[in-house]
Amino acid sequence: MLENKTINESGALPVDVFADLEATLEEVAESNPRINSTDTGSKHSEDLRAILEASLAINSSLESDEILQIVMRKAIELMQAERGLVMLLDNNKVLQIKAAFNLDSEKMTPEETKISSSIAKQVVDTSKAIYTSDALSDERYANKQSVVELHLRSIMCVPLKVKDELVGVIYLDNSSQSKMFLKSDLYLFELYAQMVSNAIDNARIYKSIYQLERYNDSVIKKSPVGIIVIDPKCQIATINSISLEIFDINKENIQTLKDSQQPTNFIDILPEKEKARWRYMINSTLATKEEFSNDRYFHNTGYVEKVLSLKISPLEQLTNGSDGLIMTVEDITDKVLLEKYVILSEKLVAKGEMAASIAHELNNYLAIASNNAELLNINIERGKLDKVQFNSKAIVENIFKIKRFVDSLMDFSKPQTEFINYDIKHLIEDLLFSLRIQPRFKQTHFTIDLSQDIPNVEIDVGLIQQVFMNLLNNAADAIEEKIIALENKDVQITKEISIVSSYETEINAVKISISDSGLGMTEETLQKIFTKHFTTKKSGHGLGLANCKNIIEQHKGKMEVESVYGKGTTFHITLPRTNH
């Protein structure tokens, strides 16, 4: 075994390089007397030291071109050759010179790089090393034109193999008889070539990894969606420009795991109100190791509310060795708004067509009734009682038909309850997104506290949304009433609406509380608030809250109210997880 202390003056050889070298040395030494010799003289020690120093130099870089330059300088220095070339096979299996130096460590010109191509070709064809101490007197090569013209004497040409695949050759020669290579030099040179092959392989692997990393970086940078990679501590490993734009973050404020020892924590860059929800989603994904997705996540940047489509997925082996998460985020705010406008337009068109159809039907009945009413007067004046009876009967019949038609419309308009398992948080966020852009809510400060552990509940989405919308509109009305009531008083009034939700485990139900800073209600009003046709509004019909309570009871839930006049009102809604 080689001892670590023989390596170099500056310090120990890296463990992987030393292990590779030792394994290679043992392999070659089995058949190479120079390396396997038990001689402990200075020449043996010098060879080992030179090989180890060359190995250190070669493994000091992972850039292929730089490695090949080092390879040739060290080969010439080690073997005391006059010239040296390293040639690699291209895609067409043709040798191409990659580095060429002379004994003075100077790069050679194209004219100076002429070698015995027949020897190099033979090495490529046989994958075996060639050695000749004097090519001019060696019957194998004495008649080769290049040998004669270049006056070549000692030549060594050794194959470079990576995992038994020939990748090129390394070539040395001397034209001076006084510098002839010995057979034992070939054994040392073969060992050196194996180290060079390993270095070339490492460089290629490094290049592939580097190119893959650059490709991945390019994909992330040019991706039309936001991409964020974080470690288990929420430290940012990667974040692209789209993500920065979505979250309204300056690039200068971000430090990644690759660039800094103090990387930015993703949670820290979020608005205070968003931190709890994001922390919950991230921790859930880390704990379950399953993908989390939300097609409509309502995110408030602190300046504007956006609708995001997001996915959080487990990711193995980040650059720091730990597992982490990859988050893809897409801003679909404009898309959602467009969808809502399209749906609204379709509803208006449908309502218009239905109104026209109803009007046409009613006009038919009214026309008959109207005509008979006119004839009735004429026939009464003329005393034609038989026709008066006919006209009266026709009027009554058509009025009855109108009543039946209106009754059928009322039956048709009765909502058909359709219960589905639904995320109540999503319903609230979706509704708020639509309401906040309305003029009456633009100056209102919303406080939203939706517990993250709320389970889905079985509800009719349309009906429950109708309840929440009614309560929120009532809240806006109550705030306006307060502003009007205190108009002549020097009092600052804030428009505040809060929505708080929680999961009541004892009763297996979800509780939603909607509060406002409006005028509030008197005790008398509070007692009648859910009574049908009772209203405090000039234009109200008194059906809104009665219908709301009825809808909640259809869901086997409860609706309660508390209010302090002059302070505000809170409605409490409790919905069971199932209504079976």
Summary tags:
single chain; 580 residues; alpha+beta; Beta-Lactamase; Helix Hairpins; 4 domains; five-stranded antiparallel β-sheet; elongated; disordered N terminus
Report on the architecture of this protein:
- 46% of the residues lie in helices and 21% in strands.
- The protein has 580 residues and is α+β, with helices and mostly antiparallel strands.
- The longest helix is centred in the middle third of the chain and has 50 residues, at 333-382.
- The two termini are 78 Å apart.
- The chain has a 5-stranded antiparallel sheet, with helices on both faces. The chain has a 5-stranded antiparallel sheet with strand order 7-6-10-9-8, with helices on both faces.
- It is elongated and about 150 Å long.
- It has 4 domains: 4-208, Beta-Lactamase, CATH 3.30.450.40; 225-331, PAS domain (Beta-Lactamase), CATH 3.30.450.20; 336-413, Orthogonal Bundle (Helix Hairpins), CATH 1.10.287; 420-576, Histidine kinase-like ATPase, C-terminal domain (Heat Shock Protein 90).
In short:
The protein has 580 residues and is an alpha+beta fold.
Give the helices and strands, then pairings.
Layout: H1 15-29, H2 33-36, H3 42-58, H4 64-79, E1 83-89, E2 95-102, H5 117-126, E3 130-132, H6 145-150, E4 154-162, E5 165-174, H7 183-222, E6 226-230, E7 236-239, H8 241-246, H9 272-288, E8 292-300, E9 305-315, E10 324-331, H10 333-382, H11 385-413, E11 420-422, H12 424-436, E12 445-450, E13 457-459, H13 461-485, E14 496-504, E15 509-516, H14 523-528, H15 544-554, E16 558-564, E17 568-576
Parallel strand pairs: 12-14
Antiparallel strand pairs: 1-2, 1-5, 3-4, 4-5, 6-7, 6-10, 8-9, 9-10, 11-13, 14-15, 15-17, 16-17
Helix pairs in contact: 1-7, 3-4, 3-7, 4-7, 10-11, 12-13, 13-15
